[in-house]
Amino acid sequence: MDALQLLADGFAGALTWQNLMWVVIGCLLGTAVGVMPGLGSSMAVALLLPMTFALEPTAAFIMFSGVYFGGLFGDSTMSILMNMPGQASAIASTFEGHKMALDGRAAQALATAAIGAFTGGFIASIVVVFAAPLLAEFSTKFGPAEFFALALFAFVATSSVVTDSPLKGMVSLFLGLGIAVVGVDGVSGAPRFTYDSPNLFDGISLVTVTVAILALGEVIYVACLQRHIAGGRLIRPKGRPWLSGAEFREALPAWLRGTAIGLPFGVVPAGGSEIPTFLAFGLEKKLDARRKNPKFGKGAIRGLAAPEAAGNSTTGMAMGALLALGLPISATAAIMLAAFRQYGLQPGPLLFERSSDLVWALLASFFIAMVVLLILNLPFAMLWAKLLLIPRPMLYAGITVVCALGIYATSGKTFDLLLLLAIGLVGFVMRAADYPLAPLIIGMVLGPLAETSLRDAAMSANGDFGVLFQGPIALSLYALLLLVVAYAVRGRIVARKRERALAEV
């Protein structure tokens, strides 16, 4: 009952006209960016990060959450209408969603995706309301050893388990860790990797890195290497933009199963919503194969409903893990964690105690965002598709200008603009060479936490690093990490055996 009372207070704060405005703005921006192939919610949040410091924290994070959810809603629109997923989390939706569109059921496919995303996000928000305070209370039992184990789990999971190439994932991670240690050490006062440049004494701003890697680098990559890649013909939805009773009954079990699959991945740093969307699609495909009249491959509504629900339920739970544990499971969540720190806030139990108004207004805004996004996407999907008519040179130039203005506004230093360009080019090279970007961002965000926790644990034990492997929580995290790694290794071995068998055939 305490959670319900606090949520009611959160709605009172979120339903002010100012906060409602920021919810709508966030949903509009997220959907708009999600619709445009090659862009995504991580880019939108990165662009907005330097521009929101003038806002009150509650308003800023309410807008960020709208962008986060809106990116997933918008991405499914292009997956269905043009078979062009803007993010990896929308790939599973293209398989059956685009076939539905080709079959003349584009409007029903868009409705299935919108309702599925709403279902997954809404149920996840309900779970977060009751689970986040419990997770925050549980995190009070964490000491330096436990936080180091948690950071190590996030590092290994995001860099080597969920990437196609563990080596590239680890390179990206260590690059992020290397950027994080630049500057004067807060304990010893020794300069690290500053090359005697006063501009680097304060370190490299996380805002600069996120904007450079996720926005500027992505724009350069898309403009240089993807400008000739064209999607399919834009299918214009016709007919009723809602589901019939039979279609709704067909999709409902898939929505619920997809939501159930996505929820656990919201608290596991496994790269975001890519894995649960594919798992949800695979489950529905196996269940469909048992039917007398299999529909997969012909535009099965369940093949679209499940991934959409799974993706948004993972995102909703990810926000809970971020608030309660300070654990980012994706690049977008890592940027939001950086935003909390820019405002002097540390997610975890202290956030629930000291900034209760912000936390519960943010949780209430999740429900409001789901409703707003449903209203924006059910009847107006074709209007969003018209954003593709924006000339690409104008779009890329506009994003580049926003990147530069945002960074210069936060620091007022020309050096940071040069740094933005240099790191943006690094991001471009990484994208061109197929290096994952999420490990770099998570390494830079969690690197200071891991370093501080390691130092504090060692100092408390007089230099005995064995303290890192004491305590049930730390040991459980290490055991879970070993299981995850073993499962990933087994999957790769099985995949290689299949490839060899197919090659021999």
Fold and architecture overview:
Residues 20-442 form the DUF112 domain. The chain crosses the membrane at residues 20-39, 46-69, 109-135, 147-163, 169-188, 200-223, 317-340, 360-382, 394-410, 467-489. The protein is an all-alpha fold. The protein has one domain (2-142, 204-434). Helix content is 73%, strand content 1%. The chain contains 20 helices and two strands. Strands 1-2 form a two-stranded antiparallel ribbon. Strand 1 (183-184) and strand 2 (191-192) form a beta hairpin. Helix 17 (392-411) packs across helix 18. The longest helix is centred in the N-terminal third of the chain and has 34 residues, at 106-139. It is globular, with a radius of gyration of 22 Å. The protein starts with a helix and ends with a helix.
Spatial shape: globular
Count of the domains? 1
Strand order of the largest sheet: 1-2
- Please summarize the sheet with the most strands: 2 strands, antiparallel
Order of helical and strand elements = HHHHHHHHEEHHHHHHHHHHHH
Briefly note the structural class of the backbone.
mainly alpha
- Unreliable sequence segments: none
Bin the helical content.
over 70%
Beta-strand proportion: under 5%
Number of strands: 2
Taking all Cα atoms into account, the compactness measure Rg is 22 Å
**Overall mean pLDDT:** 80
Number of H- or I-type helical stretches: 20
Q: What gap, in angstroms, lies between the N and C termini?
A: 62 Å
InterPro entries: DUF112_TM
Keywords: Membrane, Transmembrane, Transmembrane helix
Protein name: Tripartite tricarboxylate transporter permease
Organism: Leucobacter ruminantium
